[in-house]
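This entry is listed as follows:

___
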Amino acid sequence: MAYHDETLPRALSWDKLPAMIVVTASINLDESEIEETFVRASGPGGQNVNKVSSAVQLRFDARRSPSLPDNVSVRLQKLAGSRLTSEGVIIITAQTHRSQERNRAEALAKLVEMIREAAKPPPPKRRPTKPTKGSKERRLESKGKRSETKKLRSERPE
């Protein structure tokens, strides 16, 4: 339900619409599916680093997300690797920046990029082909040359 002008039906208001994160043309995530926790970062920050929780741990339940088609969910769980828990929750940590907002944006960008990668269809399987007649001949010719070279090495002059 996209509204291009500033008017909304009376039953809806801008602040009551669920915030959607656009991933691809067909995949939108509801912000309620993403859980963020803030922890103290180990990186740069000087005296600030011990006082402020600027690192972000973003959690997304890939297994139970209603926004993801099943095939994308399966590929996403494979892509997540060690970031995937046994319950199917993906944990992304961002702590490179000193500000919490920039770390939040970075973690969300990582998640969106991972979902975009999972949404791409897998490449087609390789169809095995037979070697051409010319390539077989070239291979046998080079084997013959190598064989001759090795024979010459083993012969002892008298």
